[in-house]
Amino acid sequence: MDKNKKFLISGFVVSLFLAGVVSFYASSNPDGLEKVAQDIGFLDTAKEHTNADGVLADYGVKGIDNERASVGIAGVIGVIGTAIVGGLLFKFLARKPKKTLKQ
User: Of 10, 15, 64, 84, which cross-links 70 as Cys (Cβ 3.0–4.6 Å)?
Assistant: First the structure.
């Protein structure tokens, strides 16, 4: 296995660990926009977005009661989804070497 594949696989494993285990310990404080809305006083006028009832809404997986597992599984799904989309984009958008004519 070459260095690039080892590096990519190591990065993927670390990403899965961070998303699946460490993400549960992230700050529970509101994000920047929510904090500003709370400070200025217009948080009560906010409306739910269209995907608020989605399976992965609110940093968890709907239907899983254990909050730690819900957040971890949502993180792992996000990492896998990002890897798939990114890999496909790199595959289709990567420049192919030009063929040279031999004389």
Answer: 64
